[in-house]
Amino acid sequence: MAAEAPQLPTSETLTVEFKGDRKEQLKDRDLALAAICLANAQGGTLYLGIEDNGTVTGLHSGRDRRKNLAAVIAEFTTPPLGVSVEYLELNEHTVLQIDVPVAQGTVFTRDGRCQIRSLDQQGKPFCRPASAVDVMRRSHQQLELDWSGEPLPTATLADLNPAERQRLRSMVRTYKGDPTLLELSDDELDGALALVGIDAQGTHRPTAAGLLLLGHESAIRRCLPGHECGFQVLQGTEVRINHFWRSPLLALVEQIEQRIDPLLTEQELDVGLFRVPVPNLSKRAFREAFLNALAHRDYTRLAAVHITWQLGDQLVISNPGGFVRGVSIDTLLTTPPRSRNLALADALKRIGLAERTGRGVDRIYQELLEAGRAAPNYRQSSLDDVVLQLSTQPANLQLVALWQAQQRQGGAPLGLLSLLLLDTLHEQRRLTTAQLAESLHREEPTIRCHLEQLVEAELVAAQGQGRGRSYTLSQKVYQAFDQEAGYQRQAALSTEEIDQRILQLARERETLRRRDLIQALGLEENQATHALQRLCKRGALIPEGVGKGRSYRLPPSV
């Protein structure tokens, strides 16, 4: 039976008709702008295929009805706008009805455009670009909150799965989360973790965090189409495992760990009368890294969190959405904890899954460095994605034994800053206190104090006095790296002497390549790279080209 034609137009309806000669991508963008216009007012209904005068003309024949328009609108808008879409048959024509909820806060397109509704001189509503004053006024009128703590207008309490709430309680016990949560009723629990909120109409609805943690998978697909996680295991070029899920987060954590466990292997290290297992992947570090990706990702983007394990080499975790404001690759370990999804991150901490202090990244670094592996690598991250590489190559058992011996001697394991200093010296070979402070974004007195403690522990060797005092790894640490020849070179050359030799080599040759330093001066790859970066930063050398073809020359005045 054909539906009855709606009464048009009113202040709560908007009709949109797309011409047949426009590209599909432009249609989607314009559709998102029309939805934004309604959401930034009082919400309403958007119709495609009905003229402003109420004439039903139907959808253009080229429109792809298989496309998930709700997902498209969520992708184009920020914060993501949840709408419901329905096809109607009116007067033998197909019409698209899109119900748009009122926005909590102000909705923009992903490229920063915003529309609001106004009345023309005849009192007819129309959409216009929002000015800064319009946005400010709306912000004052509405309390803008964390997106993950906002009620979802298209979700209901029936979308929450009681079995997932039981899973949550079980995880609180297993991971020693906040014990007070176990004493609460279901309604009290939902309120304590901001899993349910009240919308502008006074209706209790699941928040984004609530649906992600406790929702039925069908509801998550409908209301949060951006949520997805992929897990891939590669052995050489062969794909051994390739799975994708849209499960609620607590179930997803268990599903991923069930697939990780069979791939874990251990090396064994004899320490006195005990055997110390050294796994190829620290489960604690992996859980922190994975939960960080889930908690801090941008759920407004139609992109998955990806876990890719190249067996014998590395595990890579990537999530859509770059670092949040105030966080960069260089300040990951020093900036105060920040989250894109505050309610979700807080819930994961109180459940006991994530680091309660908000220093999960510290734990990831500590676990890898204590196992004698390279530090976590975020260098592939971009403005759009955070990419973390964790080494799963065989651990350096000699280095682990050295750290264990130091723990027995000092009565406590090496702290994270000490491990970072040793790792930085291993990469850059010889540095001063000022250079280490700049590299690690710490105060010089703090760095100096830790360095002298490492000198006393015979893990670091010092040369010189005053501000020119420089540091390198000690002979026994180089021995643990099987690089005793490197220690002999470092004991003979200071940073200044290395720089002078490079500049002298540059005077003798028209251009320098990194391999020239390795061959002519006996430097190692990391050492040569950091020395060239240091000289370029000082203006002593000028870089030319990119990638493997990059070369260096003296400035014209030298």
Topology, element by element:
Layout: E1 13-16, H1 24-39, E2 44-48, H2 69-76, E3 77-78, E4 84-90, E5 93-100, E6 108-109, E7 115-119, E8 125-129, H3 132-141, H4 162-174, H5 186-192, E9 196-198, E10 204-206, H6 208-214, H7 217-223, E11 229-235, E12 238-245, H8 249-260, E13 266-271, E14 274-279, H9 283-296, E15 305-310, E16 314-320, H10 342-351, H11 360-370, E17 385-391, H12 397-410, H13 416-428, E18 431-432, H14 433-440, H15 444-456, E19 460-463, E20 470-473, H16 475-480, H17 484-492, H18 495-508, H19 514-521, H20 525-538, E21 542-544, E22 551-553
Parallel strand pairs: 1-2, 11-15
Antiparallel strand pairs: 2-5, 3-6, 4-5, 7-8, 9-10, 11-12, 13-14, 15-16, 16-17, 18-20, 19-20, 21-22
Helix pairs in contact: 1-2, 9-10, 9-11, 11-13, 14-15, 19-20
Task: Label this structure with key terms.
558 residues; alpha+beta; 5-stranded mixed sheet; 4-stranded mixed sheet; 20 helices; 22 strands; globular; disordered N terminus
Question: Mind explaining what this structure looks like?
Answer:
- The chain is globular, with a radius of gyration of 29 Å.
- Helix 1 (24-39) crosses helix 2 (69-76) and helix 11 (360-370) packs across helix 13 (416-428).
- The chain is an alpha+beta fold and 558 residues long.
- Strand 11 and strand 12 (238-245) form a beta hairpin.
- The chain is built from 20 helices and 22 strands.
- Helices cover 38% and strands 19% of the residues.
- The strands form eight sheets. A five-stranded mixed β-sheet has the order 12-11-15-16-17, with helices on one face.
